[in-house]
Amino acid sequence: MSAGVFLIVLVGAILALMFLIIKCNLHPVFSLLAVAFVTGLVLGFDSLGTIAMINDGFGGTLKGIGIPIIFGAVLAMGIQDTGAAKSIANFFIRLFRGKNLELAPSLTAYIVSIPVFGDITMVLTSNIASVLSKRRGVSMSTMATFTGLGLFLTHAVVPPTPGILAIALLLGADLGLTILWGIITTFIAFMLTWLLLKKWTEKEMIEPNPEVVKNVVPSKSGAVDDLLIKDQALPGAFASFMTIAIPVIMITASSFVNMVTPEGHILRQIFSIFGDKVVALGSGVIYTMLLGLTYKKQVVDSNEQVTGKKMPEIKDVLLNSWVARGLAVALSALLITAAGGAFSSVIKSAPAIEELSALITGSSFPGILIPFLIGVIMMTAVGSMTTAGMTASGIVLPMLPALGISPLAATLAVGAGTLMINHVNNSGFWVMSQFFHLDTRQGLKYVTLPCAVAAILLIIMLIPLSAASLI
User: Fold this and answer.
1) For site-directed labelling of 281, which of 169, 240, 271, 399 has its Cα 20 to 30 A away?
2) For the whole model, what pTM was predicted?
């Protein structure tokens, strides 16, 4: 199959996926699996081979992110019941004086997503966004757009996020400069996209998930004091932030140690365990349960209001109800994510992907656009920023001498490319839609489009920086 035919098949598969989900109202799990199977046959794989790829993609995706998403969902229940989400919301209400409150969860996500897996960041920040949305009457379209944008930007471009870290190492880019320029360019892209799209996102009112904000009362005015959530026995801001900070600090510390210590060093081995995402999220859950013991009345009352079931024993809430509620929240996201992995497994197995990339290399585009476009193609095809970035960087590496750009420029360009087409075959798209109360159409508007705008802004910045040899 030629590269042109493969591109037509890929576009057709994406259109079919959108048709099944949006027009036929078929559940995304079955839509993804059905399109994955048909696409495999069209690409020339036999039925058994296609099924094997679907099984491998489904199981492999769950293996990588299943437990972290579950832990993150349980942690979210704890943040809700302890009142930590309300306390964090109060902190940002004071900080921003009741204005532009979408920046609160957005900038939190921007920072947290540097070391933390994107889907986990969504879980950790969705409650904050939902509480502020309900309290101030800010549409979840605005909250989702900029919270998602913040986390996807640093997830795609700023180490030590695993994907871009691996890309930088493979292409030989200096990690310190990658982090520095990654932060500078993504923050500028974030603020410019916020200025460009803020008014547009406010045109559609989307309410937060009613289960998440069941006990949150809307504010009567824009005054800071009136916006503050006044509740009994709320934990302090520091204790509340620690529910998020503990996993962030553990993973960040591990990434730092990995960067400064040689392979096989005892500290590297210790911190590899310390910073494992499962261990880090598990530690966050344990801390939040201890916080729940401190604010047991708040926890028991909140759990009863949410579930309608009276559980007077705090241990039953912490060890049973939080887990059950977390699993209920995580289940749909897990299955959709796994089905997206199955679809991606079929697409990325097509040999024509390499031929398509080779055609781009032979074009007359400026050198820095080549890794960007390959990143765009890979992301469109496989749906995972990490997989797309690693595949793209493997193709770009032998081209570097001919492209006339530095490894740093190539690294940032690949990262920017993986941000461009964030759509229905990306697990983050579905997790974002689930936790921010968006349907598929709204997800395409408030997740896909803002990421595309930011990616274009990034590459516009990278072109002159590369030409001036600053990167």
Assistant:
1) 169
2) 0.66
